[in-house]
Each structure stands twice: as structure tokens, then as C-alpha cells.
């Protein structure tokens, strides 16, 4: 019998040899009857492939290996590998044509029930979809890609520090992390761009740095003007390494910055729910609070679209107030005088009176 069970899988597996071509793969079912049907169908398909030149079927394992080989230089390839380790025991040995919408929905529900966030489940689905799309559109291994929906995610979180909190955190960080955190707060650069900054990308005379398009998340070069604080950090790093701006024990920083030292520093500083990437949120929030226009902030941060910067727009409300005054009425209608800050400040009138409503439109009723 060419059907067999494996200890590490609940499904029946099939082993076939047709015209010297050997196949060992999962049937995707725990039913022996259905597994036998799969066996017979696969034997017929293999015969057609060998004798009639029909397109061969490809397995999930083949697709994963080819995808990782093509994406070896992708910045987030390690994240992809993390999600693929979750998929592997579930899809191992399956033919790509067996990965239907029903199969995907079943594992999507399993991921949700595990208690992880919807965002994590979506990242798993996205890497699966990327592989299936490439198998269909580029490799021509599939005739069609199953369509499935991602889960709805809440809007991106904006967590930022006050200047006093930032000072407490910097005081608790070890020297190498403190230098990078200070530079992140001064420039808004992402963690990878700070760790990978080379002296060749820094111009001390022009007080600027730049991130190449190949190193930027948005695939566009980012000019980085260096303010006084950023320049102080840069000057403190001079002479430590001939190539890399930031180092640890004489070597470039390859580890993630969210280390045990980072977590302990947060605890000592009394700061909760804060990630390294939130330093970038803090930088952008401080800019918005200081009145930096959103289109300027977009260029400074290297965001691709204005929509990605609008999450900080509400923080710049104080700067907008002076523009709001430009449309204040210059003359009052009969029975009213223009309201002034002195007349409306601190007033708490009866909600049913006109005096309560008047400040809403910048007017105040006069005494009859």
C-alpha cells in the first residue's frame, strides 16, 4: 500500500512512482477513503505529466524554498521566516492546488483562537498570499490564486514620550543605546537606518546625512538634516570606528535594539507600553506640536503618502488656532458685539441661555 501515516502529521501520506518519477506528499486528509481517492487521482495525473506533457503539480515546500531563495535580500525576510515556521507543519507536503479558500479560512480561525492579535494573523496570511501569487503570476505553477480576506485592524497606534519622560529614559540607557536613541529622537530615522548608518553617508560640513533608496522602507532616498542635537551625537561617535557611526564593543550593531537592557531601562524610568519604533513616533509628535507643516514632516520622515502623516495632525492644533482667527467676523449683526478672548475666557453660562451659545460662533449678545 502506498498510503502511510507519519508520526508528525494527522494526515495520510501517499508515495508513488510513475515512469521512474517518485512522489511523496500529504493527502491533506485524515480519512483513509478520501486519501485513497487522492492516491488514485495523483497516479493518473503523474501518468499524464510523464506521457502527455501536462503541467506538473507543485508542492508547498517547493514554493517556500523558491520564495526564500528569491527574497534572501529582503529586509523583512526574517519576519517572513517566522510566519512560515507557523505555516510549515500545517501545509507541509500539500500540493499548491490543495490550498483552497476553505483551507486558508480554517487556519485563519485557528490563528485567531490562539489569542494573538489580528495584525499577527494578517501578517501570516500576507506571506501565504505572496507565495501563492508568485506561484501563479511569475512561476506559472498555479492557474489561479484562492481569494481570501484579511482581518480588520485598528488604526496604527501613536505612542510618544514627553520631553521629561524622554530625559528619564535616556538617563537609564547604556551608552550605546543612549547614543542611538538620542539620534532617533533628533532625526526620526527608523531603527535599521540608525544601526546601518555609515560615515560615508554623513556630511559634517553640510550637517546632513542621507539614506539610500535601497535602504529606505519606502524605496526612496531620504535626506536627513542634522539639528544641533544630532550633530552632538555624531561628533561623540567620531574616531570609534572607520566605517560605522554606531557600534557596540568595536563591532557594528546587528542585534535588535529592544534588548533586555532596553526593557530594564524602561522599567527604571517608569515608562510602560513603549517600543523602540515609538521613538520615531515621539520625534514626529514633537514636530507636529511645534508647528511643523505636515507636508514638511512627510519629507523629513520619508513617508510615501500624506495619509501616513495625518496620524500626527491633531497634535499640531495649537499652531492651527492662529489660522482659525483669520475667518473671524469683522462686524457684528444687530444686537451682538464680537466676542473677545477676555469676554469668553473661563465663562460657564446657563446652557439654555444665548450667552452660552454665543461663544460657539465667536459672538456675544448685547444687553437690550
TrEMBL record:
Residue intervals of the Tyr recombinase domain: 156-325
Core-binding (CB) domain sequence ranges: 58-136
Biased segments, Basic and acidic residues type: 342-353
Keywords from the UniProt entry: DNA integration, DNA recombination, DNA-binding
Membrane-spanning ranges: none
One of the GO biological process terms: DNA integration
One MF term in the entry's GO annotations: DNA binding
UniProt cross-references to Pfam families, sorted A to Z: Phage_integrase
UniProt entry tagged with the keyword Transport: no
InterPro entries: CB, DNA_brk_join_enz, Integrase-like_cat_sf, Integrase_catalytic, Integrase_recombinase_N, Tyrosine_recombinase_XerCD
Region (Disordered) location: 331-368
Family in the record: Belongs to the 'phage' integrase family.
Protein name: Site-specific integrase
Amino acid at each position: 500500500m502506498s498510503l502511510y501515516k507519519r508520526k508528525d502529521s494527522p494526515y495520510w501520506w501517499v508515495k508513488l512512482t510513475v515512469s521512474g518519477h517518485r512522489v511523496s506528499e500529504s493527502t491533506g486528509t485524515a480519512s483513509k477513503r478520501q486519501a485513497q481517492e487522492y492516491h488514485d487521482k495523483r497516479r493518473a495525473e503523474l501518468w499524464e505529466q510523464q506521457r502527455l506533457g501536462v503541467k506538473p503539480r507543485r508542492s508547498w515546500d517547493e514554493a517556500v524554498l523558491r520564495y526564500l531563495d528569491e527574497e534572501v535580500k529582503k529586509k523583512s525576510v526574517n519576519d517572513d521566516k517566522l510566519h512560515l515556521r507557523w505555516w510549515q507543519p500545517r501545509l507541509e507536503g500539500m500540493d499548491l492546488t490543495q490550498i483552497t479558500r476553505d483551507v486558508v479560512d480554517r487556519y485563519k480561525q485557528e490563528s485567531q483562537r490562539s489569542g494573538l492579535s489580528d495584525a499577527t494573523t494578517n501578517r501570516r496570511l500576507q506571506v501565504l498570499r505572496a507565495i501563492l501569487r508568485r506561484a501563479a503570476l511569475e512561476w506559472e505553477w498555479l492557474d489561479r490564486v484562492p481569494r481570501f480576506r484579511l482581518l480588520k485592524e485598528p488604526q496604527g497606534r501613536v505612542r510618544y514620550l514627553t520631553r521629561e519622560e524622554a530625559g528619564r529614559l535616556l538617563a537609564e540607557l547604556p551608552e550605546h543605546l543612549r547614543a542611538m536613541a538620542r539620534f532617533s529622537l533628533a532625526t526620526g530615522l527608523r531603527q535599521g537606518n540608525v544601526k546601518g548608518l555609515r560615515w560615508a553617508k554623513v556630511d559634517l560640513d553640510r550637517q546632513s546625512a542621507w539614506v539610500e533608496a535601497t535602504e529606505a522602507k519606502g524605496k526612496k532616498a531620504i535626506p536627513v538634516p542634522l539639528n544641533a542635537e544630532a550633530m552632538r551625537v555624531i561628533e561623540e561617535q567620531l574616531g570609534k570606528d572607520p566605517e560605522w557611526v554606531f557600534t557596540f564593543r568595536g563591532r557594528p550593531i546587528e542585534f535588535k535594539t529592544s534588548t533586555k537592557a532596553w526593557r530594564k531601562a524602561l522599567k527604571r524610568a517608569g515608562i510602560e507600553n513603549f517600543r523602540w519604533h515609538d521613538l520615531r513616533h515621539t520625534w514626529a509628535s514633537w514636530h507636529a506640536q511645534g508647528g511643523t507643516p505636515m507636508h514638511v514632516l512627510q519629507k523629513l520622515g520619508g513617508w510615501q503618502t500624506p495619509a501616513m502623516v495625518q496620524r500626527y495632525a491633531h497634535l499640531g492644533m495649537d499652531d492651527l488656532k492662529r489660522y482659525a482667527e483669520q475667518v473671524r467676523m469683522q462686524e457684528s449683526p444687530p444686537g451682538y458685539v464680537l466676542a473677545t478672548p477676555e469676554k469668553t475666557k473661563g465663562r460657564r453660562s446657563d446652557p439654555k441661555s444665548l450667552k452660552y451659545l454665543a461663544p460657539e460662533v465667536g459672538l456675544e449678545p448685547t444687553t437690550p
